[in-house]
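Saturday, quiet lab. Running sequence design on the structure tokens for the scaffold JK sent over.
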């Protein structure tokens, strides 16, 4: 196997560096950075309300970074989430978790999601977290679609 000449090595290095720079620049231009502010995240009163609320806030923050929100004025989207029902019914052989949530963009329409599923009684906490993950993803998906329709990217003044 032949060794690369110094000239070939630096030529390859320059091509690779320009490709990386172009990729970074295109990713930066591809999507404007939007900040999502959750004005309200409310769950029904229960013994695990605080833990569920923290988990839902974490899910909402993570999922909100993954979607495109369009091009809102000021780069800010305000939204709220209210879980209207969260029930965990335990039986000896199965646990059933049900959840209904409503989310709304500031001065915008509301979206609602409803999930219910069951699993092994020893995995009730994991089922609760999975439920909040599904609800959060569903609400974020719908809210981001509404935001994209409402905040279509503005054309730049190109000559």
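Result came back. Writing it out in full:
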């Amino acid at each position: 196997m032949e060794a690369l000449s110094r000239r070939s090595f630096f030529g390859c290095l320059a091509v690779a560096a320009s490709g990386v720079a172009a990729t970074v620049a295109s990713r930066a231009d591809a999507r404007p950075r939007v900040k999502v502010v959750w004005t309200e995240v409310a769950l029904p009163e229960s013994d695990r309300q605080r833990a569920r609320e923290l988990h839902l806030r974490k899910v909402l923050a993570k999922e909100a970074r993954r979607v495109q929100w369009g091009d809102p004025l000021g780069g800010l989207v305000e939204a709220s989430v209210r879980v209207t029902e969260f029930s965990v019914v335990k039986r000896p052989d199965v646990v059933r978790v049900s959840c209904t949530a409503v989310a709304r963009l500031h001065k915008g329409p509301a979206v609602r999601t409803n999930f219910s599923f069951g699993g092994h009684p020893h995995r009730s906490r994991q089922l609760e977290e999975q439920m909040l993950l599904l609800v959060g993803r569903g609400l974020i998906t719908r809210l981001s679609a509404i935001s994209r329709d409402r905040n279509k990217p503005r054309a730049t003044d190109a000559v």
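Notes for JK: The chain has three helices and four strands. The longest strand covers residues 76-90. Ask whether to fix the surface positions before the next round.
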